[in-house]
Amino acid sequence: LLLGCELTASTKSYTFQVDEEDDSDHILALSVVCLTDGAKDECNVVEVIGRNHENQEIAVPVANLKLSCQPLLSLDNFKLQPPVTFRLAAGSGPVHLAGWHRIMHREDASFEDDDLSEEDEEELPPIMPAKK
Predict the structure, then answer these.
(1) Looking at the 3D structure of the chain, how many domains does it have?
(2) Do 15 and 82 touch, CB atoms closer than 8 A?
(3) Which CATH number goes with the domain that contains 46?
(4) Spatial distance between the Cα atoms of 83 and 78, rounded to a whole number of angstroms
(5) Where is the composition biased (Acidic residues) (predicted)?
(6) N or C: more exposed end of the chain, with fewer CB within 10 A?
(7) 29-51, pLDDT tens digit by residue?
């Protein structure tokens, strides 16, 4: 599923969440963050707000865009675990975020996922510690 949202001076944040009772694993991947038509030449800082391994809320800047020097940033499918909030921490935008949302069903591996599960089986061997 494709994901897209726009952050502006009037809409500074967007939260992506899933139903907590859903028994599926959800992966949200951020592909591109870019300034769109009407952006001023100012620093636009986009933060991702999520939870760390201790379930504490953390905010991490992922992009600092400026029309004259960096209007677009490719995040190479930066994977996140919902719920996650995208916030325009500085600047007035508009900043467009694009990515995708993948749902992995835990209990029933449906026949539609057969193509995907073949890729998942090709795991890399575990990294062994260096010999001293």
Answers:
(1) 1
(2) no
(3) 2.60.120.340
(4) 15
(5) 110-124
(6) C
(7) 999 999 999 999 999 999 999 88
